[in-house]
TrEMBL record:
The protein's name in its UniProt record: Relaxase/mobilization nuclease domain protein
Coiled coil (UniProt feature): 160-187
Top-rank taxon, per record: Bacteria
UniProt-annotated stretches for the region Disordered: 1-23
Keywords: Coiled coil
Residue ranges with Basic and acidic residues bias: 14-23
Amino acid sequence: MQAVIDGKASTRKPAPERPRPASRRVDLVIDIQERMCQSKGPTYERWAKIYNLRQMAGALQYLLENGLTDYEALAAKTTAADRVHTLAGELQAVEAELDKTGHLMGAVVDYAKTRPVFDGYKTARYSKKYLAQHEGELATYRAARATMNDILAGAKLPKMDALKKSHRELAKKKEALYADYRAAQRQMRELVAVKGNVEHLLGLTDGRENKAQER
């Protein structure tokens, strides 16, 4: 640097080096505690306009409780939304299966109730008079049979007790998955909020401004 000032060295800027991953590691707990104790400086004043000490104390407590002592760990955990997406997919699949089982159970009940009417229709040799008298029941019978054929796709029809058991198990699984999904969503939102607070306090939200301050 002194050689450049004295004119003994070239003033051409060297090619920028790629940042090393280790240099991006930040001891968040120490850094945040130091910033919270500061009362002067443009960084603190800019942050204080948006966030108060109570919010940052909450972020600090969260980092300590979850062992997130460097920025990269916090950023990685925040962007790792795989669990939320996985739970959403599992929940959707269970809901679809639950809906299918419910429709099948309903179709089986309708089929059982209207099958005697259809048998009577056949016995009456498909009489128009019989059809007129039982048109609604026969329509229900045909719809129930079509639904069962569509859902089963050639598979054997399970007994009603088995369908009821499956429906109860699916309902319990849906309830558990939904609770896990909501918890994962809350955790993700909390992580995003904490990461935002940390980035504002440490001046990590505006890369151009940080580079200008480092020159």
